[in-house]
Amino acid sequence: MKLRSFTLLMLLVVTMHAAAQSPCENARKSPSKIHFEDCGREIFTHKPVRPLPPTSIVPGSGFGLGAAYYNEFNSDAWQRNVTFSGAVTFQKFYQVEGNAQFTHKAWGENNSARDRFAIKAYVKHWDLPKMAYFGLGPNTKKDDKVFFARRDTKLGVEVHNPVSSWLAIGGAVESLWPHVEAAKDLDTKDVSIEKKFTETTAPGLTKQPHFMRYEAFVKPHFPDRRPYNVDYKIGYSYFQDTSGGNNSFGRFETDLKNRIKISKPDSYLDFRFRLSSSRTGSGKQVPFYYQETLGGSDINNDPALRGFADYRFRDRNLMVFQTEYQINIKNGYGIMVFYDTGKVAPRLGDLGSARLRHSYGVGFTVFSGDRVYFKVYVGLGGGEGRRMFVGVPKLF
Q1: By the 8 A CB rule, do 101 and 30 touch?
Q2: Residue 314: inside a domain
Q3: Which end of the chain is less enclosed by CB atoms within 10 A, N or C?
C-alpha cells in the first residue's frame, strides 16, 4: 500500500511538471493562440517525462494516473530508446514496466522490407486486487461471478526480423511469476473465488508455479497498400511449468486484422478474426488465469463480444470475429458501429458445437488518422443487459 501511495504522489508531480513545461502555460496569457488539441498533444508527448492519458490498467480497474519516461540514444546504424512507466488507479490497481528497444534497418542487401530489425527487452509487474471470474466453458452463468486477486511479474526479450516488404518473423522468451489469491476488501454483495470454486473448477487456484514462455511467430502485413491495410500474426507459444510440468501447455494463435479505407475523410472498415487453441499432455491442465477470455475486453484490453461483461467466458480455446465501421463526421470526431460474434470451448473440436455468442453496438470516437484517442460506446445483443465503455481504447 505504501508503494502505491508513493507512486501516486510521484505521478501527480510528473503530471504537474509536464503541464508546466508545455505550451499550455501560455493559454492564460494568449488564449486565442492555442488550441485545446495542441495543448493536450504537447502534454501527453512531452519528453523525456510525460503524464499518460487517464488510464485503465485492465478492464475493471477503473481510471487512474500514469506517467512515462522516454528517451532516445541513437547512433548511425542503430536506434535505441528506453521507456519506464507506471500507473495507479483509484480502485488500487497498480502497474510498473520498463522497455529497452534496439532497432536497425533490415539485414541483407536485397531485403525490400521497410520495417526495421528490432530487439526489445522488457520487464512488467502489476497488482490486480479485484478480477472477475465466472467459471470455465461456453455456458457459464452471469450470477456465478466471483473475484480473485492477481499479481504478475514478467521479464522477457523479443526479436522482430523483417525478411521482405510483406513478411516478418520473430520470437520471444519470457520468465513469468504469476500469483493468485482470494480477493480482499470486497463489497458485501461480492464473493471471493474460493467461496464457489475449487482447484477442479478453477485450475491453478491453489498453487501457481514459475513459468518460462517460448514463442515463435510470422507476421504477414501490407501496411502501404491503400486502401487495404493487412496485419496478420500467426504463432505458437509453449508455457513451461518449471516446478514439475503439471501446468505446462502449448498455444497456437492466429490473429488476422484487415482495414479498408472507405473514403478520403478517414472513414474505414475493420475486420478481425482471432483463433486461439491451447493443448496439454495427458493429465496436465491450463491454469485458469492463463486461459483466454471473451466478453467486454480481455486482460490485454483487446475488445471482443462487447455486449457482455469483461472476462465473461473463459476456456482453453477461443474463436471470435469482429467488424467495425468508423464514419468521420467532422474534424476527427466520428461515429462507430460494430458487430462481434465468438465462442469458447474446452477442446478445439468443440468450437463447432459450442454456443455462438453475438453482440453489436454504436459509439462515438475522437481520432486522428488511424489513431483513436477516445471512445464511448454501448454494447447490446448479449441478452445480459447493456454494457458501456468510456475511455482510451487499445488500437483495434
Answers
A1: no
A2: yes
A3: N
Residue at grid coordinates 458501456: 388
* Residue numbers of the domain that contains 234: 106-391
- φ and ψ at 30, to 5 degrees? -145, 75
Q: Helix H segments across 22-98?
A: 36-44
The answer to whether residues 227 and 261 touch, using CB atoms and an 8 Å cutoff, is yes
C-alpha dist (Å) from residue 67 to 23, 55, 95, 330, 390: 19, 10, 11, 31, 20
Of 299, 298, 5, the closest CA to residue 126 belongs to 299
Q: What is the pLDDT, as a whole number, of residue 395?
A: 41
**Average pLDDT across the chain, whole number:** 86
In a domain, 346, yes or no: yes
Q: Give strand pairing partners of 257.
A: 231, 272
Which cell goes with 209?
508455479
> Largest alpha-carbon pair distance within the chain?
71
Integer distance in angstroms from the first to the last C-alpha of the chain? Answer: 34
Q: What is the dihedral of CA 204, 61, 323, 221, to 10 degrees?
A: -70
Tell me phi and psi for residue 108, to 5 degrees.
105, 130
Q: Is 291 inside a domain boundary?
A: yes
Dump the DSSP string for 160-216: EEE-SSSEEEEEEEEEEEEEEEE--S--TT--BGGGT--TTTSTTSS----EEEEEE
DSSP label of 193: G
- Using one digit for the tens of pLDDT, what is the confidence trace for 261-278? 887 667 889 999 999 999
Give me the number of domains the chain comprises: 1
Between CA 156 and CA 125 the distance in angstroms is 12
In the numeric block, the cell 530489425 is attached to 117
The distance of Cα 103 from the centroid of its chain, to the nearest Å, equals 23
Write out the H or E segment, with its range, that includes residue 105: strand 94-105
